[in-house]
Write a structure and sequence with these properties.
binds pyridoxal-5'-phosphate; about 15% strand; single chain; 9 helices; globular; 8-stranded parallel beta sheet; alpha/beta
Length: about 240
Amino acid sequence: MVSITPEVIRDNILRTRERIAEAALRSGRTADDVALLGVSKFQPIESLYAAVENGVTMLGESRVQEAEEKLRLWQKEKPLWHMVGHLQRNKARKAVALFDCVQSVDNAELAAAIERALAEAPDKCPFPVFIEVNTSGELTKMGIHPDEIQDLFDKIMRCYNLIEIDGLMTIGPLEGGESAVRASFVMLRELRESLRKSTGLPLEHLSMGMSGDYEWAIEEGSTLVRVGTGIFGARSI
Ligand SMILES: *Cc1c(COP(=O)(O)O)cnc(C)c1O
């Protein structure tokens, strides 16, 4: 297992926050306009503690089982937990119990499963979700196709009232370099604009940007960056 000290994590967070603030200024905003989610998947719990002690208030995990184990061991004040990975329908109930937000809703069946779980978890309602969009066209990516997103919004808003759609999430393309990555972020921003008009929802969050591309994402309007290795170092898997 890769080990990284709390001091290194603290320095990584400071440097990340500086870079977030500078990118926010370049987009006519301030650091307060961009939330930092520490993506802690495959990291040991000591690293998560170090992040929380250094002011990280939101952590992201990509697997229900791993989040469940970490929460069972958790001894400190709880951050907000976001699910950022692919969620299977049969884990919706656990996800609702463990997480404060699911960023990876990309189909109506999953939304339905979350809604059913929420019917038995009134203290979790309304439950924030983001709709994950495949803005890159890469086949390996999860996320709904942009052409189908209006229908998904219509369905969720018509049928499911315990879920609250708070924003959109995307993963930038791995191929194509800066111009392709920025194009993907611009697409998410423009989708939010058109969905705001068509649905009347505020859609507060544009969750885009990871360790390798969060400055571009902020310049293109990101309100929430998901930084894993940039804070915690290389993952142990
Ligand atoms: C792993 C992961 C991240 C963090 O990736 P890094 O490149 O380590 O910053 C962000 N978002 C999602 C959806 C992830 O799965």
